[in-house]
Amino acid sequence: MTIPQTISAAATDLASDGWVRVASIDDLPLLEGRRTTIDGHRVAVFKLVDGLAAIDAVCPHKAGPLQDGLVADNCVTCPLHDRRIDLATGQVIGYEGAVHVHEVSQHGDDVWVRLSHAPLADTSAEADAERLVPGDAMSDPHSSVPDTL
Amino acid sequence: MNILVIGGGIAAQSLVEALRERDTTAQITMVCEEPRLPWDRVSLSHLLIDGNVDELQLRPSSWYEDHGVTVMTGRRVVFLDTTHNTARLDDDTVLSYDRCALATGSDALMPPIPGIDQKGVVAFRSPEDCTAIQAIADAGRPAAVIGGGLLGLEAARGIASRGAPVTVVHLMDRLMERQLDANAAALLAPAMVELDVEVLLGKSTETIVGNERGEVTGLKFTDGETLDAELVVVAIGIKSRTELAKAAGLDVGRGIKVDDKLQTSAPYVYAVGECAEHRGMVYGIVAPIHDQTQICADSILGASDAFYEGSILSAKLKIMGVDLVSIGSAEGSGATVEDRENRTYRKLIVENGKLTGAVLMGDTKGYELLLDRVKQGHDVLDALELLTEASKASAADLPDGAQVCNCNGVCKGDIVKAIQDHDLGSTAEVVARTRAGAGCGTCKPLVTEILLNVRGGKVDENTYLCACRKQTREEVAAVIREQGLESVSAVADACGTGRECGGCNPGLAYLVSEINENKHREERHARYINDRVHGNIQKDGTFSVVPRMKGGVTTSAELRRIADAADEFNIETIKVTGGQRIDLLGVKKEDLPAIWEKLDMPSGMAYAKSVRTVKTCVGTEHCRFGLGPSMQTGIELEGMLEGLHTPAKVKLGVTGCPRNCAEAYIKDIGLVAIEGGWEVYVGGAGGTVVRKGDLLCTVETKDEAIRASLIFLQHYRETADYKERTYDYMERFSLEEIQAVVFDEEEAPKLLERFHLAQAAAIKDPWLERRKPVVANQFSELDTEAPVFGMAPMAGDDEAELAGVVGPPPGAAMPAAVPAASGRFAVTYNTPTKDQA
């Protein structure tokens, strides 16, 4: 991948350490999410009042686009069926299931994300998430995602 | 089968409902002596405080039609012939029956005290009694209530609430001696005094004293003391109404004697409620009535295994500020927890290792659980532990059989089933369907708790705007007004609204915009995705695009552009909607600006809580039957409402004659042209609920009809809860209340003015944000791009709307030109410039 010239030598280190620059901080509106794709994984990046958050962009319930959710109290509410997901832990609140929480950090104006492949607490949710992320599963999530509830 | 129910009270209604649930074909006739449909007598004390009897009606008149129940109000059965199975009415009509149920209720017991027939001595039994009591209480004259039981205390509190000095005179040495032990009664008396009700105990009234005009002036007691009173309410008990049964030759004791099948001594004749005597008991409280009517309905319809074995007595005092319930027997030992400081007293009574009763005062938590345990004759090993368990009991702990609503006899299991079967989402819906909470209302918090429990915490609650902080719309609105707050975050800073789950942020955003007449500071992060990108999100994350076509009228040029756009963006489904619009489905977020540009039509707002559509028929413009220009009127109306946000979606219809081709009768607002004028209907629904709108008014001209619609809409905008559709709103208030505001000579012009202010500042076409996005990457992701179109819209006022009303949220700078963000997914967010076309 290409690193823009404005990024310092430290950025090169970041890149070699598995980090990917996904946006400028000004690309992210406050308390809204935006999706990016890293190695075929869809990741939702959020600008919070006191920092940034990055989680899988696909709701484990019915594959709703989490970047489009309402953000409050360090949780995002999926726009499809109102499942709430903790941005710090990835857990779906009140239901089974979880999404990956990815590392995110800001250097200068740049926002960097490093994918986490740590196993999810809930394995059934992981299976769904893994199946959905690559390719164009968004176009018909219902064909590939059984309702885990 | 032809079933005759004699009576029109709670028992009669409950029996009819139980019968209808079990048998949809039986012919059911009710004969009600009162000149009104069955109403909730349990809530009589509410009537005294404020309100009218219509609000207490158990079921709307349509219920009887819908359920095929014939009701004869203001009619009395004068003779029952159990040999020929007929009943003669006071107008000599003769009704025959296959089965007959007596639910004749009771009269107030009036003891033979000298002077009891004077003017100013009343019972506490009927709406007429309440009117008489109110007239004297409102004059501030001193009143006395004879009887310190449940009913007497409620009557006294009602009188005190109207500002009259009132004294409860009780024969026994403590209040409610049948339900309470001495300790609880000792706490109750001072609680009543705090509510401005004086209490005299151990007083026997010798004479009710009056003046020469036959008006009551006071009481004289057997100990020689006297009490001044110009109103005496007698509430010492009830007397079963058995005259009809006696004349028919039925066995009668204190009440009409019934066996365990609720059958009287005559074949095919049954009795339920306060008129019935079962195993020597006449029940004067509501809960056993529902037990009886269920069994009675089974018996009448021939079930052989239904037996009534008596009810556990349980009673709740319905006085605001005094929480008190009693279950079963009050005397005996078990476990007691008393907290004098907080004035709570909780006691369990255990006999032979079984729970037989409870008294809960000040803190009634766990009442339903304990009632269920008493009913089941539950074994108790450690009474104190059970008491502790009960005080922590939540809805989840209740067994399905536990009765939640005693007024209407609804168990937890019924509520859970209704929520699951009908996918109920709010307390109001549960109350409407199950009747739980529709009586005195004290169980409503528990109904909500059960709902939360069943729905896993997700409830579309109208009651609170912010459910986490338990703040109502009114409370938050008051803060916004007082402090002049202009944004969601300012409200959150001021009173914490929306800080917890954030679920109320969209509602709060509406409230802020409504109070500021759309001159608020817009924060898009408080809005649903639909309102951020002005499309309706679909299950696959794509959006639907519905351009505005006022009145459902379009042109060939528009249709051509729609067809071209559909081709260019590979629209998979093109659907004509119920609101007479064209819906393009499956549009990717990043394609939204481009498809809007191609369409060159304003947003139809089909994604927002806003005025959606005005559906019309062709009317006098083309129709042979038309009585009014519905198309032209609908287009005009839609033009006036364009872009206006509302608490919930608002759909309108204008139809050119009562044939209703535009379905105006079932719209939130519907205009119907009639001969010589227009009718305006409000609160109609054709969704989950089908409801014909209420006729708000009939006017002569189209302009008057539009004016009434606008005033109603503004009143709704200002007073409805978020997500409360007009049909729920009309049920919550009443047509009369709404009319009183909408036609108030002072209020109506002010509403209309506020409507015009809000409308002037509303964004008529949010799709113009394609030319001037309000946040960074408004329509794109980091891995997609969306074009920005030439910035200056042609119409000057559109530009003003965008610039003046909507600003970017704080902290979100307008996007600057960004170089490629990453090699693979270049983000090219363009700063709008005049050069770009």
Summarize the structure in words:
- The complex is a heterodimer of chains A (149) and B (837).
- Chain A has helices at residues 9-16, 123-132, 141-144, and strands at residues 20-24, 33-38, 41-48, 51-56, 70-72, 75-77, 84-86, 101-107, 110-114.
- Chain A is of the alpha+beta class.
- Chain A has a single domain (19-135), classed as 3-layer Sandwich (Rieske Iron-sulfur Protein), CATH 2.102.10.
- In chain A, the strands form 2 sheets. A 6-stranded antiparallel β-sheet of chain A has the order 1-9-8-4-3-2, with helices on one face.
- Chain A is globular.
- Chain B is of the alpha/beta class and 837 residues long.
- Chain B folds into 6 domains: 2-108 and 240-300, FAD/NAD(P)-binding domain; 121-236, FAD/NAD(P)-binding domain (3-Layer(bba) Sandwich), CATH 3.50.50; 473-527, no CATH class; 531-599, Sulfite Reductase Hemoprotein, domain 2, CATH 3.90.480.10; 611-761, Sulfite Reductase Hemoprotein, domain 1; 778-837, no CATH class.
- Chain B contains 25 helices and 38 strands.
- In chain B, strand 32 (611-616), helix 20 (630-641) and strand 33 (650-655) form a beta-alpha-beta unit.
- Mean pLDDT of chain B is 87; it is low at 792-837.
- The interface between A and B is large, with 45 and 49 residues.
